[in-house]
Amino acid sequence: MTVAAPRRAPWITVHEPMADGAHWIVERPDASPLRVSADIGALLSTLDGRDAAAVARRLGVPWTAELVTHAVERLDGLGLIDGPNAAAPKPERRFVVVSPTTWQLRVVKADRLLAPIRPLLVRLSGNAVLFTALALLAGGLIALACQGSALGQALGSPLPLSTFALIWAGLAATTVIHEFGHGATLTHFHGRPGWFGVMLFYLTPACFCEVTDGWRLAKPSQRVSVAMAGVVTQAAVAGCAAMVALAVPGGDGKSTLLGFSVVCYLSASVNLIPFVKLDGYLALMAYVDIPHLRDRSTAEARAWLLWRLFGVQHVRSLPAWTVPFGLACIGFPVLVLGIAAGRWSHVLLGMGLIGGVLVLVLFGYLGYLLVHGAWSLLRNAHRAGVGTARLVLTAFVALSACGALLTFLKVDNDIRAGYTHDSSGVHLVVPPGTEVTAGSHVELERGGLMFSTSLGSARIGTGRAERTTVPFSALTPFRTGVTTEGSTLPLIDVTGRLDPTGAARVQGAPMPAGTWLAHNYLLPVWHQIFGQED
Question: Are 191 and 214 in contact (CB under 8 A)?
Fold first, then answer.
């Protein structure tokens, strides 16, 4: 459609380059910014309602009225021209569903909070701040190494529930500091951070700070610095906690500081993973200077799969390394959720009905990701002209391979559980619905925040599991007087010096992977939610 008197849409903002070598950026409400060429940026800045000939005269060579008209038609298709094709955006929303795995609640504009110290942030020496943060990071690692015994106690022994709460509250606070590290660094380079808020990221609570204005920075190194600022800031806080712990005597206070330090270091390290939209990904995208790297790489990976499985031809538009990178981006979220489900399901099941529902939701979402990914691949193949017979055959082969894997792949049927030790003897504690066999070997352990320490061993005695109220500390690595529902069985041939409660690992014979999944996850969830028949 030809626009006689083109005018740029009033809801977009055209940013000129901040310095030589920087890019023109078009900012759109509730959408990713667009990087445009200098010619298109100048054209958009000029479109104020004049006709194409007048715009061409103002822009000068090589613009002509025909070129202006052609460019305006393409920009109109992108919704950047004020007209019938450019529906006015809805008012800016506070709650945004970015994707099924990312839900954001925008709280406040970060630039407003940083405005009082903007002059200081601009004048600060980037190198001085960086070297100070790196010194704290390294000093903290040295301090942790010097406190090996106390560190093992903090990570490998049950903690009071209050200590656990303090560690995670401290982690939440450092997450806020982490995000403002991004905003402060962008401000230092004369950029303006956007919204600050909280979000659910792959079912995990987190904070965020919008720094898309960083794409206006001229140097890739500056954009990398903005992306990495949060990781360095959080690691520096972790280092401070570890060094403070040197001066604290042993006890829960020292364990709290050491546990907090380690959790912060791990959180900062996780943010370096480039396969999801964390800081490591943003840094990589800035370094290679490819906008929307993850989306474009996953598109390349899907196209490669279509070529390998169905012979659909595709002309690659990105470097060859983006194909394996895209495949990792597709599979990594499923892997992360699977590991999280295996790690925390026994803890959640110990919480009763609510825990069972949470585990069911988690596994349901995992299944959705797998089915949705496979269905999207088959649908794209069908659109590319692949015949129905070949699609059915490929799906059958894939399902058969999965069935064979679940049937013939053997896994150890170890069951995570707990135990109690009192005047009545030693009893195994399992979530309701968990099935164990009399005579099975049991490792009795002292569970901690990060790992467990062996205390002794036992065997499961004969008798029927008794459903009763058990200490919450038998199923979780916390010291607390809270109780929950569980099933208990007597233990015999007990060896070792045991705590009143602790973790247990029931050793089982190898079984098919499918049976193992049903035995350890699906059936306990079913019994927890719907009850177990007597």
Answer: yes
Report the predicted TM-score, pTM, of the whole model to 2 decimal places. 0.80
Give the chain's end-to-end CA distance (angstroms, integer): 72
Q: Could you tell me the residue ranges of all domains in the chain? A: 13-77, 96-288, 293-411, 415-508
pLDDT tens digit sequence for 339-392: 766 666 766 766 667 777 777 777 787 788 788 888 888 888 888 888 888 888
- Nearest to 444, CA basis, from 396, 510, 491, 485: 491
483: three-class secondary structure by DSSP: strand
DSSP string, 368-437: HHHHHHHHHHHHHHHHTT--HHHHHHHHHHHHHHHHHHHHH-EE---EEEEEEEETTEEEEEE-TT----
Q: What gap in Å lies between CA 228 and CA 460, rounded to an integer?
A: 51
Q: How far is CA 25 from CA 18, 213, 240, in A?
A: 10, 9, 39
CATH number assigned to the domain covering 415-508: 2.40.30
CB 429 within 8 A of CB 474: yes
Backbone torsions φ then ψ of 271, nearest 5 degrees: -65, -10
